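Structure first, sequence second, as always.
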């Protein structure tokens, strides 16, 4: 008799395994580097008060991201299937937990950030074409309690969403080439900015000297916990390669290598950008500034920097949206293969070999969110839940080491069990802090996930 856990992975091997190390690494880089690195350093400078502390907290965040990446490396090599956390939680904690993380990914985890990214792409384009600004609403409709507003930015978001989605329907070979191109251009633009800033920019190396308060001012101990939360959210997305594990060549080697390489490249870029911001503005000039990337570029290069930053941000957001459009549907595809999602999303395109229906379903839901402007509250509500499921996924390493001690593990987490425990402990601390500081948003996030339970039992009954 063949069990469910033996059948489902076999069905997922029909995905074409044509993704290599470059694409998997690019998914991580594109997914992680978003607007956070250009906005959070100003608040870190205000709360921590010294160059050493600001740079140091990014190193701490990188260590925690590496702990998560190494843990996912063991899980991905052990279960080289599409789906990421869905697969890991299904195997370690049971199918209902796998479903809940997949449901959270569909409702908000991927869909809401994709909607926000496509609108953000239009907003940065409006720097060059002012008519595309999101506030330029040209039609408003009222449907009972629901109000719908249409703007040129939404139309750009729709076109961007569907163009990227259709590109990725063609599979990880053709669509992957687009992703690699966008990510390489994005990373190259940032590296050029860093190098040009230090070589040609009008900065001051004296900005790296600590003030009278020393390298660890009082604010480090008072505000360090909140600052670390900002840093960790800026690192979120380091696990992106895990979602396409079923399409990666030699996943037992490629997946851990991509997780480690991608996280290392992001860390280097983050440290380089923060050093550039300090060089350009100093801690006092950065303190409390929201758009610190734009202000630093202006200080280094003058007014021409506004065009450069707007173009770079538009490209960065486009690459991030593209990466999420690749990753998300692999989760829904894996769920459908197990019979706990819309059945047709588990089908594979007969020519391209991609989870085409899952990609289209995601695009439809994101379109609804863009039309209603409902993605921002979903991002706030889902943050708590997504951190929780990431911690559970890393905890799967420990659970499976005990439950399946004889299982084949082509890659093992170094310094086990301290590496996963480090990630889990800090995740629990973030969850406790968020639940205490934002109880309403956290509760809404939990309710949003639990609303999927009736669908789970319905699909489970049918299958």
């Amino acid at each position: 008799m063949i069990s469910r856990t033996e059948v489902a992975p076999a069905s997922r091997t029909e995905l074409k395994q044509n993704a290599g190390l470059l694409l998997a690494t690019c998914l991580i880089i594109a997914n992680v580097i978003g607007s956070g690195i250009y906005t959070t350093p100003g608040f870190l400078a205000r709360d921590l008060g010294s160059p050493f502390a600001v740079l140091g907290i990014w190193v701490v965040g990188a260590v925690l991201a590496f702990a998560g990446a190494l843990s996912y490396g063991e899980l991905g090599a052990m279960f080289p299937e599409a789906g990421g956390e869905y697969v890991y939680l299904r195997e370690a904690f049971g199918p209902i937990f796998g479903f809940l993380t997949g449901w959270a990914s569909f409702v908000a985890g991927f869909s809401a950030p994709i909607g926000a990214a496509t609108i953000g792409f239009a907003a940065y384009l409006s720097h060059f074409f002012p008519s595309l600004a999101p506030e330029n609403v040209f039609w408003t409709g009222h449907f009972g309690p629901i109000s719908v507003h249409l703007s040129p930015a939404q139309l750009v978001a729709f076109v961007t969403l569907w163009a990227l989605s259709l590109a990725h329907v063609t599979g990880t070979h053709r669509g992957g080439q687009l992703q690699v191109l966008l990510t390489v251009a994005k990373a190259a633009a940032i590296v050029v900015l860093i190098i040009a800033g230090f070589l040609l920019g009008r900065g001051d190396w004296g900005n790296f000297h600590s003030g009278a308060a020393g390298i660890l001012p009082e604010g480090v101990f008072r505000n360090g916990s909140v600052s670390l939360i900002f840093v960790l959210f800026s690192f979120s997305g380091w696990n992106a390669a895990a979602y396409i594990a079923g399409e990666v060549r030699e996943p037992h080697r490629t997946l851990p290598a991509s997780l480690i390489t991608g996280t290392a490249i992001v860390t280097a870029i983050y440290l380089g950008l923060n050093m550039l911001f300090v060089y350009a503005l100093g801690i006092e000039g950065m303190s409390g500034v929201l758009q610190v990337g734009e202000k630093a570029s202006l200080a280094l290069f003058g007014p021409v920097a506004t065009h450069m930053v707007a173009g770079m941000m538009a490209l960065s957001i486009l690459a991030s949206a593209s990466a999420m459009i690749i990753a998300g549907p692999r989760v829904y595809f894996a769920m459908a293969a197990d019979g706990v999602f819309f059945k047709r999303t588990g089908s594979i395109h007969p020519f391209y070999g991609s989870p085409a229906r899952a990609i289209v379903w995601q695009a439809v839901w994101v379109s609804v969110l863009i039309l209603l402007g409902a993605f921002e509250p979903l991002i706030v509500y889902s943050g708590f839940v997504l951190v929780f499921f990431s911690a559970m996924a890393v905890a799967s390493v420990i659970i499976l080491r005990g439950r399946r001690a004889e299982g084949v593990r082509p890659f093992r987490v170094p310094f086990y069990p301290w590496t996963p425990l480090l990630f889990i402990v800090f995740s629990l601390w973030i969850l406790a802090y968020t639940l205490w500081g934002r109880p309403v948003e956290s509760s809404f996030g939990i309710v949003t996930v639990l609303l999927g339970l009736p669908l789970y039992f319905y699909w489970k009954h049918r299958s």
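Margin note: The chain has a mean pLDDT of 88.
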